[in-house]
Fold:
Amino acid sequence: MSTQRYIRIGISLLLTVPFLLHATGVFRLGFLEQLENVAYDTRLQLTLPATVDDRVVIVAIDEASLNEVGRWPWSRDVLARMVDQLYDQYDARTVGFDVVFAERDESSGLRVLQRLADGSLADNADFMEQYRALAPDLDRDRTFARALEERNAVLGFFFRNRVDPDSNATVGMLPPALGASGTDGLEHLPIVSPEGYGANLPVLQQAAAGGGFFDNPLVGRDGVFRRVPLIQEYAGDLYGLLALETARAALGWPEVELEVAREGNGYRAMESVQVGNREIPVDEQGAVLVPYRGPQHSFPYVSAADILDATADRSILEDRIVLVGATAAGLLDLRSTPVQNVYPGVEVHANIVSGILDERIKRRPAYLLGYEFIILAILGIGLTVLLPLLTPLWLSAAITAITALIVSTNLMAWSGADLVLPLASPLVLIALLFIFHVAWGFFVETRGKRQLAKLFGQYIPPELVEEMDKAPEEISLAGESREMTVLFSDVRGFTGISENLEPSELTRLMNAFLTPMTRIIHQHRGTIDKYMGDAIMAFWGAPLADPDHARHAVHAAWEMQRTMRALQPEFEREGWPPLEVGIGLNSGLMNVGNMGSEFRMAYTALGDAVNLGSRLEGLTRTYGVAMIVSESTRQAVPEFEFRELDVVRVKGKDRPVAIHEPIGPIDEVDRQTRKAIKRYHAALGKYRQCDWDAAEREIFSLSREYPDDRVYAMYLDRIMHFRNNPPPDDWDGVFTHQTK
Structure:
């Protein structure tokens, strides 16, 4: 593996590390949290029920009510009358107030009368008698408390997460704490623990059936209400959300049990809150994801003025869960939510009540941190290994498929299991790695390919440049020795042809000849060394190692000859003479590298094996054949049928070499031809044994069957010569050529 590849993998893995640290919570990436919120909001909006749940009714303190009753806060006797109407006139099942009544109602003037009774008029019998008679009716808080007594009503209050040292940490009276089981080790859980509270007047809270907080200390950084704590811990006790307590009131106040994930003897995180037979999934902080049904008015709305006037439709309110809350803009109880930017806070509670009743609340348990870490690690490592191996097209296809798999799996978990899997972090990691690897491929590897193409583009096909780029460490421009195969081709009689053609026509002829020949060599993984006029020198086995260099070379040479025959009609139409090409092939150890001078360099092959290939091409004219290969090349291509031509010493070499003519792929050679070759090889054996008569009979017979075969005529001439001039006793059958 190249250094560049190691660097690429290293950078890719480094890009993954921040995502893994984000998943473990070592540090949080703000932009990922924002994108995760966007992904959550998008999934929520796409899967909203968009129906109206008439089991929960919102009695709205709206503009119409304020216009009719007056500015808020209203007198408690008005609220008492509204409670009486809801229970007596409309037969509501439960009433929850998304309002806190922390201050006394002094609008009746009772406080003034109390001061007079305690002071200057204390001795006035008539005054005191009237005071005692009027006081109970003027105590508006007591009036409201009497309306709440014996009724299934829940009052709201709020916790303070931070308390100003100069202010009261606690105001009013908290409702009874949740008598929840499973709270052992509560101090080990990361539940929200406020520092103070603002609650209702004791007289009111004691009269109510229960109470729940309506504050939300877990609002996202963007101010959007996505999750709300279902419980909070104060002074060692647990208190429930207004929506939870209202739902419990409607269900008959079932018991509450905390389901806590334990690890050994320790506590890790909350998983759910069991309310009777209903399970409410929570996160590690005891918070629920608000199960929004849709935009505002996903629940029936009734104006508080209509309740007070007794003009509301009874069928809307009968046996319903009623939440009383402010919707008028001036009362500042409007929230930003994933489904609507301006959304009444009371309807947030209505959605949670509805979700508790239907068990329709999404889960985002603590163990998803482990899931996120694992999926990011798999993506980071997997894509780091996979993407460098792919072409841009396949890389894009792979990224698309992986993204589709992640998104579809996520949506299936969302819709089928109410499970909120992380989506933004894996998608951003996929996009980041995709961009990085595309950029690396374009700016780094493409530059390397351009350099390789500049060096080798004139010698080898683009496909081999691609392979070289994948393993650049295997490429060397320095001289080295390799087992290779060299090919030489030459047009016979080219001098006479060139003399009879105009220069422009000769150029066209050479282009029409060299282009298809070069293409064939490239298709068979060959490297063009040089053009020498009409001649071509090519080799196999460099710059990329090729264990099948001999096979590729023979197949290329064979296809070159077939292509030459196919080109003849085209040459004839152009008025060009027919071309005959001789090809010589040899395999052996050669020196290859970038060679030349300081003025010009060329990637070429040198050595005795190269020279022998050139000599063999020259012998094609002597033996009258189109191709000659050496013994080493023949042995490497067993799928071809060969005819042994001779054992020769070429000029400048002392060592004899067996030379062969490729006849064709074995499965394409007919039976008669194979039989003739077998007869010829037998006669050649007799010839080398100096059995001139037996050799002559067989070869003479073959020459009559194949009168155009120059090899048979050549051996008949040699037999005649040796009859008259017998060779020495130690003759080895080798023929020595004195010309190149």
User: Anything to note?
Assistant: DSSP finds 24 helices and 26 strands in the chain. The first strand starts at residue 56 and ends at 61. Residues 424-456 form the longest helix (33 residues).
